[in-house]
Write a structure and sequence with these properties.
Its EC number is 2.7.7.65. The chain is α+β, with helices and mostly antiparallel strands. The chain has two domains: 3-115 and 133-153, Jelly Rolls, CATH 2.60.120; 164-314, Alpha-Beta Plaits (2-Layer Sandwich). It has helices at residues 46-53, 135-153, 164-175, 194-201, 203-220, 244-259, 290-306; strands at residues 3-5, 7-8, 17-25, 30-35, 39-45, 61-65, 70-73, 78-85, 95-100, 184-191, 226-231, 234-240, 262-263, 273-274, 277-283, 312-314. The strands form four sheets. Strands 2-3-8-5-6 form a five-stranded antiparallel beta sheet. It has a five-stranded mixed beta sheet with strand order 11-12-10-15-16, sandwiched between helices. A four-stranded antiparallel beta sheet has the order 1-9-4-7, with no helix packed on it. Helix 7 (290-306) links the parallel strand 15 and strand 16 (312-314). The protein is elongated, with a radius of gyration of 26 Å. The termini are far apart.
């Protein structure tokens, strides 16, 4: 009797991949994968699945296929896994997996999904879980997947903050309604002397600095503030305030939070380096356009750099562009 297999996810892998934990399967079992579009289908034993989960070199059976259903034969009795690469986020590709054991063999419960706790047992054929899903269930799953992909597309993978794409979208949204301008402030910031840290300690340490700064900034801001990593060691903050003084106070909260964070270069080290940031602030009401607002906040940031760093500067009309801070 065919056995339908439930899907799961593996910690550390992109949600783009669906993982099916087949459990112990007898040699000669056929694994059937139903696809909605072209996909990469990988069948691997448990040892190779662990290598795959850790990003190491692994061996598998299968590959890119346009056939649906795709069928793969299990060559020997062991614990097995199927990983399906849902190619094309826009297609919201879907997949279903079932095993067809050879005559006389009993299908086993699925293996535990690494890092996810106890996996639910596979549904027996004919049970409610094995019946075709309704249109409402399919729509709900598609919407959930779409929201997941949107979150991935708008998140900086290193720091967990919003990325430049999301930052630009939020800025555009603000300027679409003139009522937003008077109470909106843009704060731009970057890490002081970041290049010297990268050159001295390497990019791995640089990445740790970026994560630490991002966490300090995020933890210091009001809940309604929007923070993003806009590129390299640069960050952007958008806040709704009642006055420029309130915006300045919020910027200073972020600056002091980073300044008070002790950063160690090696795990277990007791002494760390001082990391600081410089910030530039401009009220949206002072700008003629979205580009103008960004330019003016950037001028204020360079003002902080030229005045000694580790400070917040507010845009003034007499500020001149100086792209080579001291």
């Amino acid at each position: 009797m065919p056995q339908k297999i439930g899907e799961g996810f593996v910690l550390g892998l992109s949600p783009r991949y669906k993982c099916y934990h087949l459990g112990k399967q007898a040699a000669g079992t056929v694994v059937e994968v139903v696809l909605s579009c072209v996909n990469n289908v990988r069948l691997m034993d448990h040892a190779n699945f662990l290598l795959y989960s850790e990003g190491k070199t692994f061996q598998f059976i299968g590959g890119r296929t346009e056939k649906s259903p795709a069928r793969l034969a299990i060559p020997r009795t062991a614990n097995w896994h199927i990983v399906v690469d849902r190619v094309g986020f826009q297609a919201l590709s879907d997949s279903n997996v079932r095993t067809i054991p050879p005559k006389g063999a009993k299908p086993a419960a699925p293996l535990l999904a690494p890092g996810t706790g106890n996996a639910a047992p596979a549904a027996a054929a004919g049970s409610q879980a094995a019946r075709p899903t309704s249109e409402a269930d399919v729509l709900t799953r598609m919407l959930n997947e779409l929201n997941t992909y949107k979150q991935i597309a708008n998140t900086d993978s290193l720091t967990g903050l919003a990325n430049r794409r999301a930052f630009d979208a939020r800025m555009t949204q603000i300027f679409s309604d003139p009522k937003n301008l008077a109470g909106t402030a843009l704060i731009l910031t970057d890490i002081d002397h970041f290049k010297s840290f990268n050159d001295r300690f390497g990019h791995l340490v640089g990445d740790r600095i970026l994560k630490s700064v991002a966490e300090a900034i995020r933890g210091s801001l009001p809940k309604a503030a929007f923070s993003a990593r806009t590129g390299g060691e640069e960050f952007g903050i958008i806040v709704q305030v009642t006055s420029p003084d309130d915006a300045f106070d919020i910027a200073e909260l972020a600056r002091r939070a980073v300044e008070s964070t002790s950063f160690t270069h090696q795990p277990g080290a007791t002494e760390g380096s001082k990391i600081t940031i410089s910030l530039g602030l401009c009220m949206a009401g002072q700008s003629l356009s979205l580009e103008d607002l960004y330019i003016k906040a950037d001028l204020a940031l360079y003002g902080s750099k030229n005045d000694g760093r580790n400070r917040t500067s507010v845009y003034q009309d007499d500020m001149q562009d100086n792209s080579t801070p001291a």
